[in-house]
Write a structure and sequence with these properties.
The structure holds two protein chains of two kinds. By secondary structure, chain A is of the alpha/beta class. Helix content of chain A is 34%, strand content 22%. Chain A is globular, with a radius of gyration of 31 Å. In chain B, a hairpin with a 2-residue loop joins strand 17 (374-379) and strand 18. The chains are: A alpha/beta, B alpha/beta.
Chain lengths: 466, 403
């Protein structure tokens, strides 16, 4: 025991020599992300994780110390509906994956996101209509060659577009096609199950045949002339049609009928693999949530119907007319993802008015909502101020930072790894020059996984670029 | 404004008591002065220089701001209206608006129509006015559509008022000039930039010599009229300044795209500029324009695009300009006092200052913050709009000055 222990200590010391020194961000106003605030505290980071947060944190001697000068630190913002580095997706099948269209070298867009304090984003898999593909989640952690973008969930949600901008007949056709695909997926599963059963049967019968043949062989093999000394008995194998060694051809005396039956024993045909159907089945099995873009009331109701029929986890995207059907949305327990839509279009004022009514309806029906930057990659990361505006309109008590950090993380299923400044979480942190919701505030620096990912040119918090 | 007077503590109480008695007597003796006076006290108010100041009270009398006092003066006054955690701002002013303008308000026949006044074509009952009011915009400088070289004269109109007669602030406002391809027309002319400038130059020089020329133009050439010129490119900006300089007229320039590039030229001409709208989709160079203009000392007004877009467009433009480097003070000026200046109505509205009309908005926070909301809107000293959190409905309260 003693030997083992000393060996372990030696290894650990060596490990410590090579491990990066911890970093302490001190003298910071820490917004945890769950609604609580530490007016003046320290965050201790080791490797890519937060190891301690609090007012009185013991900082190891060898730690690199950063004085935040009283500035506000928040968790990295999380975009729940973005298109950073992947706007030209145009998916049209359940197997099309947004992660395959993600450009790790889209440094400008990613830099823009980081500049706004965004450290992770869900990537929409948008297409013109129907089942459009699989969304992904990426984190803007530094990679080799100056790239920023690391997939953390390659297949995060199934995306469907009910194309609310299309004329009514086309929309109907789109919805019918989607429904049909789900039905086909279900029957594909049924046919696979049937195939499994039939295959089992078939193999069972083959085994029976084989055993029977072996018995016959054994009978004939009792003749010592057949087997030389030392030769081993062939174990019973599956009989394949064709010449076989030793022994008489497998023709029993059972007669022509049985022979015919055996010959008719055909291997069941495996249904052709349908990868798209397999994706849909994952949605049915609750392995993937389903994000449906439904811009008008009818399409929203259709989406709800689809979710009920196939028992899907439903998320409504860009549901600008949800106010008219808010009750149905609440009853279906669907989540709503909002994105800021340009108000500079001719219908802009109508959109703004609609958004107002929507927020009211969401609040009144207690429907939870989250917000992202939208599928236009130009808006990468620019959703803090729009979120503030929407929050101001709908619920002045709403904690916007909480909405964009811990709630967003929870929504994407990332709450164990990021979204709050807490022990064990990834060190995804943003240092702001003031109150994040004040337009005069700017992002001073951004850390992703404990590494500096962005630093404002005039940043004052003391740390040099790594 | 009185500060605290240093009195020995022993006498202070006596002094205060007699002062209270005295003011009570005075109040009783002159009932009208006390009754017509409304006092508003909030956490902060927006000063004429755009800064936020605490501890102030706004004293309103007969529809106008009587004075800005210290809040201490009214600390025992129960009739003062108090808004804790709120910020009182002058009513926001949208320039280059087309709110309430129905249909085509210019005749495309004549390309220089200085006598056309947009005030004649404005529908004051338009719902757009109502929406603007609810977003804290109390006045708009409405301009004619930019389809002619000189489409006519702008007008400044309030978005609401208890007294409908108080709607119009300035019916015959700045002359609108358009140096943009939107004013070109292959059939009617002009069909080029050079052609447009030639026509304008000719019209101006004719107005100088011809006594029967349009009065609006004659005012301009005599250096007495104000002009707002919409410029599509940076070349148009230089041309506009050059065009009007011989007449001693410095126009207000309307240009957004290359504001950074032309900042120095605007500063040298001592001109004001209208920029916007800035939206969440504007690109970075556009957003950097206002800050660049401020750096060289140019005062700017922001256009919010509210009737075509978000009614909060004015505050969104301001917030985005601030996030790109414009100082908060300049941003607050750009949607209030500077806007009233380009509309030529700065003696009436745009600032919380003695003598101005009491057109103001009570926000739940700094108007530059987008999570701030409109709580109440007052026009000419009367409360014309109150937001109700209970039902999320909008109540209209006309004529009442207290709860």
């Amino acid at each position: 025991m003693v030997v083992l222990a000393s060996l372990w200590t030696a290894t650990d010391a060596a490990g410590q020599l090579f491990r990066r020194a911890p970093t302490a961000i001190e003298n910071a106003r820490i917004v945890i992300g769950d609604g609580t605030v530490i007016e003046n505290g320290t965050i201790l980071v080791q490797g890519d994780r937060i190891v301690a947060v609090g007012e009185n944190v013991t900082v190891p001697d060898r730690a690199k110390r950063i004085d935040a000068g009283g500035m506000t630190v928040t968790p990295g913002l999380i975009d729940v509906a973005g298109a950073i580095g992947s706007s030209a997706f145009g998916g049209s099948d359940a197997t099309h994956r947004a992660i395959d269209a993600f450009d790790r070298y889209a440094t400008e867009q990613i830099a823009q996101a980081l500049r706004h304090g965004v450290t992770a984003s869900y990537l929409c898999a948008r297409g013109d209509r129907g089942v459009t593909g699989l969304g992904a989640i990426v984190r803007f952690a530094g990679g080799p060659n100056g790239t920023f973008g690391e997939p953390i969930v390659e297949e995060a949600a199934l995306c469907i577009n009910l194309a609310s901008g299309d004329p009514p007949l086309r929309r109907l056709a789109t919805f019918d096609a989607v429904r049909k695909k789900f039905k086909q997926a279900v029957s594909y599963r049924e046919s696979k199950e049937t195939y499994s059963e039939e295959l089992e049967e078939y193999e069972k019968k083959l085994k029976e045949r084989a055993e029977k043949a072996t018995d016959d062989e054994e009978k004939s093999n009792d003749d010592p002339k057949k087997n030389g000394p030392g030769s081993f008995q062939q174990p019973p194998v599956r009989r394949r049609p064709g010449p076989r060694r030793g022994g008489p051809p497998n023709q029993t005396d059972a007669g022509e009928n049985e022979k015919k039956k055996e010959d008719e024993l055909k291997k069941p045909t495996e249904p052709a693999r349908n990868p798209a159907a397999e994706v849909l089945l994952r949605a049915v099995d609750h392995d993937l949530p389903v994000r449906i873009v439904a811009g008008n009331g009818e399409d929203i109701l259709n989406a709800i119907e689809l979710a009920e029929e196939f028992d899907l986890i439903l998320i409504l995207e860009a549901a600008t007319e949800a106010d008219g059907v808010a009750r149905a949305v609440a009853d279906a327990e669907a989540d709503v993802v909002l994105e800021y839509r340009s108000s500079a279009s001719p219908a802009g004022s109508e959109t703004a008015r609609r958004l107002d009514a929507l927020l009211t309806a969401l609040a009144q029906n207690k429907i939870g909502w989250v917000i992202g930057s939208g599928s236009n990659a130009r808006n990468a990361g620019r959703f803090l101020l729009p979120a503030a505006q929407l929050a101001g309109q709908s619920d002045p008590e709403l904690d916007v930072i909480e909405l964009l950090t811990s709630r967003a993380a929870e929504f994407l299923g990332l709450e164990e790894t990021t979204g709050t400044i807490a022990r064990g979480r990834a060190a995804d942190l943003v240092i702001w020059s003031g109150d994040p919701l004040d337009p005069a505030t700017r992002v001073e620096s951004v850390y992703v996984g404990g590494r500096l990912a962005f630093r404002h040119d005039d940043a004052t918090a003391g740390e040099s670029d790594e | 404004m009185m500060g605290p007077t240093p009195f020995p503590r022993l006498f202070k109480r006596g002094f205060l008591m007699s002062a209270a008695l005295l003011s009570g007597v005075i109040a009783f003796a002159l009932p009208s002065a006390g009754d017509d006076q409304t006092v508003l006290i909030a956490d902060q108010i927006v000063m004429p220089d755009g800064s936020l100041a605490s501890g102030k009270a706004i004293v309103i009398s007969e529809g106008k701001i009587d004075r800005i006092a210290s809040a201490d003066e009214f600390k025992d006054d129960d009739s003062a209206l108090r808004y804790p955690n709120a910020v009182i701002s002058p009513g926001l002013i949208e320039v280059l608006s087309s709110v309430g303008v129905r249909g085509d308000n210019v005749s495309r026949k004549n390309l220089i129509d200085p006598q056309v006044a947009v005030i004649d074509g404005v529908d004051r009952e338009s719902i757009d006015f109502r929406r603007a009011l609810e977003a804290g915009v109390t006045a708009a400088m409405v301009v004619p559509a930019p389809t002619d070289l000189v489409p006519g004269r702008a007008a400044t109109i309030r978005t609401g008022a208890a007294d409908s007669g108080a709607r119009v602030v300035r019916p015959f406002g700045p002359l609108s000039m358009v140096l943009s391809s939107s004013a070109w027309d292959r059939d009617r002319g002009p069909s080029s930039r050079a052609g447009a400038l030639a026509l304008l130059r000719e019209a101006l020089s004719n107005a100088k010599s011809d006594a029967s020329a349009a009065p609006a133009l004659r005012e301009v050439v005599r250096g007495k009229g104000d002009v707002v010129v919409t410029c599509e490119t940076s070349a148009d900006v230089s041309a506009a300044l050059r065009l009007l300089a011989p007449y001693g007229v410095t126009p207000v320039i309307v240009h957004t795209k290359f504001a950074r590039e032309i900042a120095d030229e605007i500063a040298a001409a001592n001109a004001m500029i209208i920029v916007g709208p800035l939206t969440f989709e504007s690109n970075q160079p556009t957003l950097l324009g206002p800050a660049a203009l401020e750096r060289v000392g140019v005062e700017l007004a922001l256009h919010g695009g509210i009737e075509r877009g978000d009614p909060d467009g004015l505050r969104i433009s301001a917030a985005l300009a601030v996030s790109a480097g414009l100082s908060p003070e300049a941003a607050r000026r750009s949607i209030t006092v500077n806007a009233s200046q380009v509309a030529g109505v700065s003696n009436q509205i745009g600032a919380l200052r003695a003598g101005q009309s009491a057109d103001l908005v009570i926000f739940t926070g700094d108007p530059l913050r987008l999570d701030s909301d409109v709580q109440e809107v007052w026009i000419a000293g009367e409360r014309v709009y109150v937001f109700s959190h209970q039902t999320h409905d909008f109540d209209r309260v006309i004529g009442a000055t207290d709860d």
